[in-house]
Amino acid sequence: MARFPGLLAVAAACVAATALAEVGAGGAADDPRIASAWRVLRSVDCARCHGKTYDGLAAPSIVNYAATQNRETFVRMVLDGDPPRGMPGYRSNPYVVERIDDIYRYFIARAKGELGPDYRAPTPVERQ
Fold it and tell me: Is the pTM of this model over 0.85?
């Protein structure tokens, strides 16, 4: 891979573009992956530092961060964190790792205005 650093950047851009297109195609509010991401964010309590709508509090806005960073940078920040600034990494949390693409989709949808700050995931239907 080191021989083709541009290839990695192109691949990351394609994944980000696909995520953007998919969110817009079916409606973000009805996307079960977005709902799953919302539940993960509530579970790990990102709101504690980033505010209840993730628009910033003691820590910066995740919505603005997703809007200004590429997918690779966003994922690296969530998984590895920035310990000197107080941001924990979630690489050891399988709940976050397994849904990192959905989390990115959620914040891209927020940044694009496809989801408002008052979005709440629908309650899962109980199986009988």
Answer: no
Query: How far is CA 11 from its chain centroid?
Result: 18
First to last CA, the chain: 49
Q: Which residues of 69-82 are buried (b: 16+ CB within 10 A; e: fewer)?
A: bebeebbebbeeee
- Secondary structure of the chain in HEC code, one letter for each residue: CCCCHHHHHHHHHHHHHHHHHHHHHHCHHHCHHHHHHHHHHHHHCCHHHHCCCCCCCCCCCHHHHHHHCCHHHHHHHHHHCEHHHCECCCCCCHHHHCCHHHHHHHHHHHHCCCCCCCCCCCCCCCCC
- Does residue 75 register a pLDDT over 80? yes
Q: Which domains does the chain have, with CATH numbers?
A: 28-111 (1.10.760.10)
- Which pLDDT does position 3 carry in this prediction? 54
Residues near 92 by beta carbon (within 8 Å), at least 6 away in sequence: none
